[in-house]
Design a protein that fits this description.
With 95 residues, this protein is an all-beta fold. It is built from no helices and eight strands.
Length: 95
């Protein structure tokens, strides 16, 4: 199944943070913080302002940073995604 976001929305697959243990303390999954990095899976066409289409700055395949509580969680084919507006993305990670 494929998702095609509308307007200035972006589909992001959260990247799992590497689990680090110190000592013998194990943190359950329910207590872990949500990851704040992800990979852009699909991008909408952009938003319309003053009758003109404003192109998106992010593209498919970009690694991005987003706010802790940004977006709406959806599960498709047992894979979790976030759908958010481009303005919820804080930055693009480059190497």
């Amino acid at each position: 199944m494929k998702i095609k976001p509308l307007a200035d929305r972006v589909v992001v697959k959260p990247l799992e943070e590497m689990e680090m243990k110190k000592g013998s303390i194990i943190i359950p999954d329910t207590a872990k913080e949500r990851p704040m990095q992800g990979e852009v899976i699909e991008v909408g066409p952009g938003k319309t302002e003053d009758g003109k289409l404003v192109a998106m700055e992010v593209k498919k395949g970009d690694r991005v940073l987003y706010g802790k509580y940004s977006g709406t969680e959806v599960t498709i084919d047992e894979i979790e995604y976030l759908i958010m507006r481009e303005s919820d993305i804080l930055g693009i990670i480059t190497k």
